[in-house]
Specification:
four-stranded mixed beta sheet, 4Fe-4S, alpha+beta, disordered N terminus
Length: 258
């Protein structure tokens, strides 16, 4: 067991080192190749060239506001409730200094610093997690969504090392006993598999908005970033927004109205 752990750490270190070299060389500015959807679409499917999310942080003023979105996501995706350090998270909340680590300044508004902010997969235009996955279990769709094929995941966790946003969770134990009520429309996962937010691609294919967007009741917006007439583009034009760690050049698809 010790030998396997050493081997994993050695290869993971090389992977991270390679990732750093790519960043230094500007390699992240080149978009990862997109693949065609592996999810089955129907006639009602919502489509976009580049899906993006805009979170209006001004509107999330209570614990209930956050819980409604988190619970909707957990229910839709069979996310287990595992307490402690091995918990599984697709969308969660955290403090300003943890969310915007490279955009803080000592003169920031206290009201803004005291807010809590959603964290989730950023569905980057140049996703490092796609580049480091040795089995293509993580891949980017033509719509910009970074998706996962759980059957291909071998649990190497290179994607977790490559993601600069900490947006992925690993199933250290069988998650199924920790699911309160299984949603038969979405697959459960197994021990040894990584998982993360998928922008509700399965709901988009059925003509529905993401579960958190629906539960947010107007506090989270979702649309086509490539369409100048879309709601998300108009919101970005009219409001000051931030993205997480923009200096890395991954081009996140999640924006925060501040």
């Amino acid at each position: 067991m010790k030998r396997s752990r050493r081997q994993f750490l050695k290869v993971a270190s090389l992977s991270v080192a390679g990732l750093g070299a790519q960043l230094a060389a500007g390699g992240m500015t080149k978009a990862a190749a997109a693949v065609k959807p592996s999810y089955k679409e129907d006639a009602l499917a919502l489509k976009a060239k580049r899906w993006a999310m805009v979170i209006d942080t001004r509107e999330f003023t209570s614990k209930e506001d956050f819980d409604a979105c988190i619970n909707a996501c957990n229910t839709a995706h069979n996310i287990p409730h595992i307490p402690g350090k091995t918990e599984i998270k697709w969308i969660w909340k955290d403090a300003y200094e943890h969310t915007f680590t490279d955009t803080t300044n000592k003169y920031q508004s206290k009201e803004i610093e005291d807010r809590e902010y959603f964290m989730l997969c950023n569905h980057c235009e140049n996703p490092p997690c796609v580049r480091v996955c040795p089995t293509q279990a993580t891949y980017k769709l033509e719509s910009g969504i970074v998706a996962m094929d759980y059957h291909r995941c071998i649990g190497c966790r290179f994607c977790m090392a490559g993601c600069p946003f900490g947006a992925r969770s690993f199933n250290f134990t069988d998650p199924r006993p920790y699911i309160k009520e299984v949603n038969p429309k979405f697959p459960t996962r197994m021990i040894g598999v990584v998982e993360k937010c998928n922008f509700c691609v399965e709901r988009l294919d059925a003509g529905k908005l993401p579960a958190c967007v629906e539960a947010a009741q107007g506090k989270i917006h979702f649309g086509d970033l490539s369409d100048p007439e879309s709601e998300v583009r108009k919101l970005l034009e009219e409001n000051f927004t931030l993205r997480r760690k923009p200096s890395l050049g991954t081009e996140p698809g999640v924006f925060y109205i501040i």
